Fold each of these.
Amino acid sequence: MKKLVLFLLILSSGTLLLTESCTKSSTYYDAIVIDDDCGWLLNIEGTVFFAAGLKEENKVDGMKITIQYQVSATTHTCQDGRVLSIASITRYL
């Protein structure tokens, strides 16, 4: 019984740490700003996102920025039919 309680305690601690690390990431990512017919986009590690919260001074095609972001639950549909996930910038480095 003690082993079961210890196992469940360790398991719940690991789940809590995993949940916190997924929601409160302190990782910064390099992104390339893209000026496109669809609007301002970000290429982050090979994935293209619609940019939300991009500062005016960073709206330069090809500019490299370092950011933290969250992927929105909603998507953005371009006039040409492409559907992109939305990257909401939460912090700049």
Amino acid sequence: MALRSRYVGPDELKQTPLGDIPVVSRQAQLVAITEAAIVADFSGGGFSVLYERAPTGIDNERVTTALVLTWQDRGQTKAQPESDLQLTPDQVEHDDEHAAAEDAEAQQSEE
């Protein structure tokens, strides 16, 4: 069971009758949603997007000021905290050695 969330905050300002409002650009929205879709494609499950919106001072117009994307591996998932992991230099060196060994094996199989 897994449940993960990601906050996407404003990355540009929009000029409105109420003044400048920090908003999430469409580009940032597309990138975040695409990344969530890639996770769902790779891992299964599904994701949702919750939009925070703010008025601009123009009747019936609002802009997106933040997003929260939530991915879950199944429909009735309960939140579980993600454990912290701190890599030590020994682990990083081991991973580098392992990757080098895999590269050498791949080169030998190509020859």
Amino acid sequence: MKSFAQVRESTSTEKKIDGIKVKFQPNQKGVVVYVEGDKLDIYPDMNRAVKMASEFVKQLKGMK
């Protein structure tokens, strides 16, 4: 039988945007975005979450 943590992880999606690890995890309020393990924000839908994550990664790359 799967544990709660395994079930929760199965609903999340991980991507690499410009070489930076980004995780999208849906919940009751929307989609939570994690960039390199740090919580960025909660967005109402997946399209907006992906758009804002890519924008954040661009800004992060510009600072380095």
Amino acid sequence: MSKKKVSRNKAFHVRDLEVLCVIIIVALVGVVAYYAPIMNTKNAEISRQNAQINNLKANVTQLNSQITKLNSQIVNLNNQITNLNDTINCFQSTDIITTLNATDILGNSTIPNYLLITGTVKYEGESSAYNAGLHIIGLSATGTPLINMIIPIISATSQDPTVYQNAFITGISLSTLYPTQSVSIAAIIYHAGTVASHTINPVWTTVS
């Protein structure tokens, strides 16, 4: 009799384990079913944030490119400031005597308008004048700058004038004048618009 009871008890234990396994499996399925949408939502959120990160990286790259361009513009502006300071450091000389005429010439379909400058420049200083030039400013009737540049004082004739294509060019090599030197000037400066008024002033420095 005792042996039969033991077999029945073992059978009951096996059924209990089977039931427990079923309960565990059902619970796991329930857990997976519960957390799967949450995980999907989290994964979608991670994908969205990764996309935002990629967009931000692209924006950073674009901004870095803009910064590089702005730095290049800053360098160019600093160069312009240097050139303007060089111009300021030049001073008008009473030792340079100019006899100049300037006429604004209307161009045509192939030649733009230009300012024609002719005459003479005579230097009566006692020592050499370095970085000598003519600072030319041309304005429209409304005061808009059409020409603003310094040209070197170099000899030329009206038949073979010195031609300047850019009315705002800087960094041109200027001249050295020697005592009692006289220079015939003939220059053409192409420009936009019509020059209604102009000034031509000699400038130079005491150092080369």
